[in-house]
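Our working data are protein records whose layout never changes between entries. An example says more than a description, so a record of this kind follows.
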Amino acid sequence: MAIDDRLIDELLKDYKRPEEIIGANGLLKQLTKAVLERVLEGEMTEHLGYERHDSSGRHQGNPRNGKSRKTLRGEFGELEIETPRDRHATFEPKIVGKRQTFWTGFDDKILSMYARGMTTREIQRHLKEIFGIEVSPASISNVTESVIEDVREWQNRPLDQVYPIVYLDAVMVKVRNQGHIHNKAVYVVLGVKLEGRKEVLGLWMAQTEGEKFWLQVLTELKSRGVKDIFIACVDGLKGFTEAVEAVYPSTLVQLCIVHLVRTSLNYVPWKLRKDQVPWKLRKSAVADLQAIYRAPTAVEAEHALVELEAKWKAYPRVSQVWRRNWTQVTPFFNFPSEIRRAVYTTNSVVSLSRSLSKIIKIHGGFTNDDAALKLLFLALRESAKKWTMPVQHWHDALSHFAVVWPERMPAIEEVAS
């Protein structure tokens, strides 16, 4: 909307100092207040059907009923405005809602700070320092509490029919309940869409996990539209394989190689005799483990495992982790290197879990399950903004899936569209 230069000249004719324009009571703030109040009056006129002081509005049954004051907060600081009222309280202003206390979009800044692990008190101090506004902890909590509805809507949204690869991982949170703190696992399900982009399918919280729990999760995914999953990459989750067989019998369950390597390294000691160098010992263990999952075939991988068992017999648990789970380690050897990297180099889910764990550590304990899910949802939303590119070598992997499972995958032309 163009503004007449003559009007601007009239407003600035007595201008002497910047404070007169951008100060606490400067022209910009006065204009904002005047425009908002004028629009609110216009909305009231439209609601009642007659102008203010218009005689046709007398005895209409729902006249104007004075004004109420409210403070609107935003990047410009605090602004007190007057909102017109009607006697029956049926007026619903649009430009500034009844319970709105922040300028449009400002609550997104609060949510962004909260998603980065800042506490309510820290956000309060930050708003005071940066914008010079006083916001009560209760007001900040009201903004963050409104997110729980978004969480429920997101958790129940429809999903794609096919996800070629799905990763499952968990982060631990501390939740207070009746004066006691309990450790709970929040499971993150990360899917790779047919076009190769990543999408978090949902969050599930459980005190214990098993076949019954995973059956519930997978059944929920199916009810939300997921008809097929090609490969599920998991961290040896108890009861998961059995649940998959019940809901998605064609899905291949692959044990997460990254987690296996980490588990093995937990059994490699850090403290040794003076003539030994711990970091060299662990470096050697990493190289021996790589020889297993980077082997060209399953047969050669087992040979590498036998060599690992012989070399590390002083620390038998290093190799026992692999031997005990061997049937769930080897499925990905049936695929070319592009798909293997997508399965065992789970950088996406590991990076995601690391960022979530960092935020959880900063935040500390949670008052209830909803508080934990709310923060994790906001953190996931921030992380998802970075997922702009498809998984590496995805076109080659997709072509292989089309050859191996032609009846399970839509035509590549449909995927591209």
Remarks:
- The chain has a mean pLDDT of 82.
- The radius of gyration is 30 Å.
